[in-house]
Write a structure and sequence with these properties.
two-stranded antiparallel ribbon; alpha+beta; six-stranded antiparallel sheet; 209 residues; single chain
């Protein structure tokens, strides 16, 4: 998504409790564009072996940009990183998940792991798989419900997860027992299950962070 893309409601996930923020649309669009540019840089950095002169020059420029951002630091609840309700949430940690269906009972969508998430031999790093599961299941656990946090996430690796490939994710809310919420999810390439997960999320008590 670029800064010229319109942030329409059809692109947004449903309410995810306290994670929602209301930002000026123009300000949010610019930040989403910035986060996307950082993602592009991460993927290209992961695949590059630049000459030393270029590495030194880029390092200096990145430090200069960091200094520019230093003067605009805000408290967590006012930050846009991870809180703009668009695919990827305007953050650069986990890969972008673009939903095609989202309600309080289940989610479906597509994820694509770029070079930044390479583990080796063309496969996605094993640690990136739980990252996207926690991203999707955590948001589903909180959709139209009170906030919760991950208690455990059990992941089964069924096949090698490829880079730069559109993969489908489906997640379902299975049951709720008091404050406990049980959810499951799968990642597939076509009909091949690459990984599946079971997560337990526990609703926060009033005042818990």
């Amino acid at each position: 998504m670029s800064g010229n893309d319109e942030l329409t409601r059809s692109e947004l996930a449903p309410s995810t409790s306290w994670r929602n923020r209301d930002y000026d649309p123009r300000l949010a669009a610019s930040f989403v564009d910035l986060a996307g540019a950082v993602r592009e840089f991460q993927n290209l950095l992961a695949g590059a072996t630049p000459p030393s002169e270029l590495s030194a020059d880029l390092a200096n420029r990145v430090r200069a940009m960091a200094l520019e951002l230093a003067q605009f630091q805000v408290p967590e609840r006012n930050a846009m990183f991870g809180h703009v309700d668009v695919p990827g949430r305007a953050q650069t940690l986990s890969p972008v998940f673009a939903s095609t269906r989202w309600d309080r009972d289940g989610v479906a969508g597509v994820v694509r792991f770029g070079r930044f998430y390479l583990g080796g031999n063309g496969a996605v790093h094993g640690g990136a798989i739980p990252l996207i599961f926690d991203e999707v299941l955590g948001r589903l656990a909180n959709t139209d419900r009170r906030p919760s946090r991950t208690a455990y996430l059990h992941v089964n690796y069924r096949a090698v997860t490829p880079l730069d490939t559109d993969l489908s994710i489906e997640a379902h809310f299975e049951r709720e027992e008091g404050r406990k919420r049980f959810l499951v999810a799968t990642i597939k390439a076509g009909d091949v299950v690459l990984a599946d997960a079971e997560g337990l999320f526990v609703q926060l008590n009033p005042g818990q962070p």
